[in-house]
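This section describes the prediction task in plain terms. A model, or a person checking by hand, is given the sequence of a single protein chain and must write out its three-dimensional structure as a string of tokens. No templates, partner chains or ligands are provided. The sample shown here is typical of the held-out split.
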Amino acid sequence: MRVVVITGLAQGMGREVALKLGAMGVSVAGFDVDEAGVELLRRELEAAGCDPLLSTLDICDRPSILRFRDEVLRKYGHVDVVLSNVGIGFFGPFEELDLERAKRCLEINVLGTAAILQAFIPAMRERRSGRLIAVSSLVGQIPFPFESLYSASKFAVEGMVLSLRYEVEPFGIQVALIQPAQVSTGFAAKIHVLPPDGSPYRERVRRFIARDEELIQTAPDATTAAAEIVRVVQSPNLKRHNAIDAKSRFFMALNRFLPMRLRDALLLRQMDIR
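The expected answer:
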């Protein structure tokens, strides 16, 4: 029996991944802060014949994560995959950011990922088997303007996971990153806010938002992205880096091979902020 733990599964990609895995007979455990979303997902999984273990809790509540871990292991005996899908955005010109508010982005995106991966390592290590997969982002390798703190959080996730692999691979634990570019959900709309009148960045941010929202219209939807994530989760040969759409793969390739000046020019043109 395969058992997959997913964080941030009440909506968007996490929810779709849970539903797809449940339909395949995979045992799904996970949590989210969205109580209504968690309960709706529970009903849908149960209707599909699954026996999920879902909780409503905050990724910042470390003691509750450990209690959740213990409950999962009591119910299923082991975990095959931990998919850290938790994350929030943070947007705005760096000069104008509220760094006190930025702490929550870093706490959730970086330490939240660390907390759920760390919680299940002992059981995987003793079993000498398991997969730790973190959802990062294109901006975890290609920094975007007006997303400096969010980019920093995703760069941190990537560095953490790639460092972690040296420690856990000798115990049979595999690690991987999933790096979407854009997914057509409400994620960006929640954070896109124009700077106030008088801000020297306001016009460029306005153009950036307009272009970003235009690109989102043709981005993969949550269901399509989830199908790619499920493919990664179930792949017999887990790759370290996993772009989930053609756009991500294209930009990752450019980032590896093009000179920085040319990369910068392409990015500024692409986002209409020259």
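For orientation: Strands lie at 3-7, 27-32, 53-56, 81-84, 130-135, 173-178, 241-242.
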